[in-house]
Amino acid sequence: MPPSIDPAATAWLLVSTALVLLMTPGLAIFYGGMVRSTGVLNMLMMSFVSIPLVTVVWLLFGYSLAFGSDAGGGVIGGIGHFALSGIHPSTVRSGVPELLYVTFELAFAVLTVALISGAIADRAKFSAWVVFVPLWTLLVYVPIAHWVWGPDGWLSSFGALDFAGGLVVEIASGASALALALVLGPRIGFKVDAMRPHNLPFVLLGAGLLWFGWFGFNAGSALKADGIAAAVFLNTLVAGCLGMLGWLVVERMRDGHPTTFGAASGAVAGLVAITPSCGSVDTLGAVVVGLVAGVVCSYAVGWKFKGGYDDSLDVVGVHFAGGIVGTLLIGLLASRVMTGGARGLFYGGGLTQLGKQLVAVLVVAVWAFGISFLLGKLLDRLLGFRISTEDEVAGIDFALHAETAYAEGVHGHAPRGLFGPRPGGDRDRSHGDRDH
To answer: Of 2, 32, 51, 417, which is least surrounded by CB within 10 A?
Structure first.
């Protein structure tokens, strides 16, 4: 008898897909508030343009290669679903229409590549980014998704656990962000200028939208409206809360005051870490995951100053570090009640699961970093990945998009060309304060 559609699961996944799709605009606002006023539009555009670019690639090749029948060795899927061939409205996968499953997984791919943009804020050519996005999706995201989530993917068969994307989303994007930050080099003024967020209310609004969408991201990954989805939903809330509290405690002890920026960053750190582990740990485990992530990531964001790489918006410090924390803690905190079998060290499972999680972290990080570094270098040689010094100093928004986010600059005037024809090649270099 052919599989039938589960109406409850389908309704829940429809809602979850919409929630995950909202996360990319939410990320755009989160990142947009974190940059300086002369780069906010470019930051928004890097997230928004990822939506159509990844959609085209995903529908043509991505879904089939990631989630199609294994082509051999658990490394990559086949092309049997090229351009979604063979998938009809009545086709069922995991109890839901397969077209809905396609869209749900597409939303994950879009968000993942958009995350990388935060590491290269204020200095990357938009044209190079437009080429990077589809290539990265095919060369990095798709293989890793197949390894972890695809039919007979080798990391899945190996026993590594990743419920909603600690490996596929967080570590893949974080390692790739580090690679691109090294390829492009630091911003002008790195370690000298303050480079403070220009709009903290934007940051908090973006964090709120991300948190809201994360319930679909994590609980939707259950693919059912059942007890596991409910437990994952609660774990997501708990870890975000404890991540925020952990970060704020560190700020209070280290710097003397808690900040709104720290609150937003801590919540995101906790949500990042619970992403891989939300379907493996119980509520107490979620408390530990969120708290550890908030503390670890609050220190990890400072690695860039010691390491000399300019991760503009702390993608490495939050997503890479938080993804590692959440993925490895599965090896300590996995509960049989949640996993149905695997147990972590603290639940009597020994070191076996921790070893599997460590192998998965290393493999995904090396692959994502290596391919991203090579791809970044290639695009830099062919297209030039970084804008000119002149344009970077003047502000990337007007240089690349011929517009600014705010009608009046800090000196009370708008850039020439904003409300009328732009003189040939002439740009107003006086607008915008780098630290405003």
So the answer is: 2
